[in-house]
Structure formats: structure tokens, C-alpha cells
What we know:
With 153 residues, the protein is an alpha+beta fold. It has five helices and four strands. The chain has two domains: 6-46, Arc Repressor Mutant, subunit A; 66-140, Lrp/AsnC effector binding domain/regulation of amino acid metabolism (RAM) domain (Alpha-Beta Plaits, 2-Layer Sandwich). The protein has helices at residues 6-17, 23-30, 34-46, 79-89, 116-127; strands at residues 66-74, 95-100, 107-113, 133-140. It starts with 5 loop residues before the first helix and ends in a 13-residue tail after the last strand.
Amino acid sequence: MVKIDDKDRELVALLQSDSKWTTKEYANRLGLSTTAVYERIKRLEKTGVITNYVALVDRNKVNKAFMVLCHVKLIQHKKEYVLQFEREVVRLEEVSECYHISGDYDYILKVNVSDMDTYREFMVTKLTAIKNIGSTQSSFVINEVKYSTAVHF
């Protein structure tokens, strides 16, 4: 485990809210020197606490606001079926997240498309074309109550 102090936590929180500020702006907010902030960022990157910097996209602006949580059950839990499903699902651009889960289903997928017709086409031509799927259940998101990419620690 990486040793992290309160200033590191504050810095990571600031970076998670907006990573486009200058090092000087972070330093001013934290009451540290620019060099100290730069070194902290580099250490957090090197130790893997910070893994990447990304641009978040408004799904409404790019016609991908129809969100579906799709549960998938495989016909069997054989290792080869699990690995094959995972290899194929990561290639589907409509799927933004995929989790192997416990319970009645084996996976839950977060799917972003433009509308119901596009989702149906995705299900018929792409998802259910993957071998060894036993069943699926789709839940359509009515309203996004909370969305965050931040990890608080």
C-alpha cells in the first residue's frame, strides 16, 4: 500500500474534479510550492495511485443518452466460456462498463446507445451473437440520480 498523507488526498480530490489546472493553481489551493505539487503528482502517478487522465463526455451531446444495465447469464461457468465472453464483450463499443458479479447473473453491462431501436439492434446482432450466453435481462435507466468518477479515500 502506498503511503498517502492529507495533502495527497486533497491534491487527488482536486485532480479528480478538474485535472486541467496548472501545477501553480494546485499549489495555491494546497498552500504548497509548485515543485512540491509537481513531485507529489509524479509520485502518485509512479506508484499507480493516479492511473490516467481522461475527458468526460456528455452522453446527451453525442446521442448516446439511452442507458441500459444489462444482466448476462452464461450457460455454464466453465473457464473457457468466461474468458471467451470477456474477450468479446470488451470489443463492443456500446458497452462502457462490464462487471463479473455474484448472484443470479454472471455479468452486468452498462450500455450507452441512442434509443430503444439501436439497443434492440445491439442485442440481436452483437451481444446475443456471443456464444454461451444463457439469458439476459435489461433494465432501462429512467433517471441518473448520482454519477461520479471520483474515488474518495
